[in-house]
Design goal:
Shape: elongated
Strand content: 25-35%
Structural class: alpha+beta
Number of strands: 9
Distance between the termini: 110 Å
Number of helices: 3
Mean pLDDT: 78
Amino acid sequence: MTEAAGPADAADDTAAATTARQQGEDGWQPTEAKEVWKVEIAKLRQRSGTRKQVARTAAVSGATISDAQVPEDQPVAVDFLVEAVGDSVSVTGSVAAQWSSECRRCLDPVTGPIELRVQEMFEPEPTEGETYPLGSETLDLEPMIRDVIMLELPVAPLCREECPGPVPEAFEVVPSDADGEGEDGEPERDPRWAALDGLQLDDG
């Protein structure tokens, strides 16, 4: 049998959603956003099959790989169905964010969307690399969200497929005298060889 979340759970979600909206309006602080990603699951775990919807928007810290990242001052929006499954909890739903980086050819700024579906398990004794840790009263969504975002970040993004790379006209070329070159551009001769200029060698 599947039960909807109770009034207390709904109140917790409403408070968290309000906090997330306020952080979105005033600017996200990673330390505050961490609390937004924690979900109360004590009552949810009392009966297997109990579900509740979790929709939140806040910052995620550390979502970066190489030069690509979802900046910590940018929002990440999630819409999850959280369900008790025995001693574990499943989280299914969507994650949306905007990444930023540099074009690998011309180095201009480039951005792109992240929109993906997730289905992950949280367990009291998680399996490394497969499931996520589950507390007795709370579930921390941020590590999972960070992981799925990092898997979607581009390693070598392009601003466009036909990007030709740097435009020479956009860069000022500053001439400089090469060390060890004379006025004609030829390497300067070591003066110690001058004594051999008049030396004649007999053939044979």
